[in-house]
Amino acid sequence: MSKRNFILLIIVSILLVMAVFVFLFLRPGPALPGDDTPGPNFFSQFNPFTPKPPAVTPPVDIPDNVPPPGTETPAAKLIKVSSMPVAGFGLFSKERLKDVPIVVLEAEGSAAGASKVGTGTKKPAPPLTEFMPAVRYVAKATGNIFQTFADKILERKFSGTTIPKVHEAYFGNRGESVAMRYLKSDDRTIETFVGIIPKELLGADTSGNNEVKGTFLPNNVKDISVSPDGLKIFYLFMSTNNSEESMIGTVLNLRDNRKVQIFDSSFTEWLPWWPNSNTITLSTKPSANIPGYMYTIDAGGKNLSKILGNINGLTTLAAPNGKLILYGDSLLSISLYHTDTRNSNALGLKTLPEKCVWGRGSDVIYCAVPKSVDFSKAYPDSWYQGDVSFNDELWKIDVKTGNTTLLANPPTIAGGEEIDAIKLAADEGENHLFFVNKKDSFLWKLDLK
After folding, report:
1. Of 388, 384, 386, 393, whose CA–CA distance to 374 is shortest?
2. What is the value of pTM for the model shown?
3. What is the mean pLDDT of residues 340-366?
């Protein structure tokens, strides 16, 4: 082969090799299964200057109205407790088992501790318990008693004793006694039954048909007030002697059923309140056009003293410390009366004292305050008679500073439901405020903390 032909052969070989390399460099890489987009070419996988396409994360299907993991859905601050109209309720402290993780104790003499002497197991520790606020209430229609813890609303029937159409109910003796008031079959005579509620065994599953046994107070008891410790009740009833009527006030000890008369008055229209262990207040029944008066008497029936008087539509609510009186008038203006200085100061809110409750330290007042008032009506008469129904907000009043704080506007957090609150009561720690809606008699709870 001539030298010229040899050079041509080398050139052609070089060109063929270069053509093969160019073909391999420009050919698209294999496509991924299910992907119509060509992949990167073969050489680009090793070329640090060729950008790689970003990784694609497939979308996650998140259902509607489900909070992201790790977050909590805020609980309602104001909730309905009872599933039926109630005649009354009582707060008490109830023991329950604590929710704690189960710990398995290792047996002695097991493989892990075979060198130890003995083959028994360690004695299990007693279950941990806690005392928590609870509430018991009476169904208006049947007189059955229901209960639940304050922090975990789980309504449970406790008694099966039936008393139809209970109008009022009062609890005492740490939730173990109840007084129920209702009309007899003649629709005229008021009957008052005082019953003992069976004790509840810790951790026991009750059937809900416990029997409530008790005795009856005299017919036509006009009103009842429970002592602050819940161990006694003060009740008023009419007595007739030689055609003369008088109002008799009696203290009943719920533990031993002993009765002691401490009050007797020819005037028969009284409303009692027992704010502290030493004092009972007696206020005349209010009316818009009649001056009202308030008196105090000690629990032994001595030292009847006038505190307030000559106030039209007077309604009152004494503080636990006995030094302050919350009172209202026919204009629904509420004020504080100081028994030591005999001075009064207006609180700037319009409501009724019976739509309020004192804090245990006598330093705050929780009140249901009407959002609007029709002053063409006479108060409190129109409200008592059912001619007027209020739509309330819930407020807190600081007694020392006079500052008022709006706690809740029920329609905004109660599904649009309006509330006319009565029978307000706070638990011992003032973590929860309970009340009854006068519009339908259902029991509600507002979390304060």
Report:
1. 388
2. 0.78
3. 96
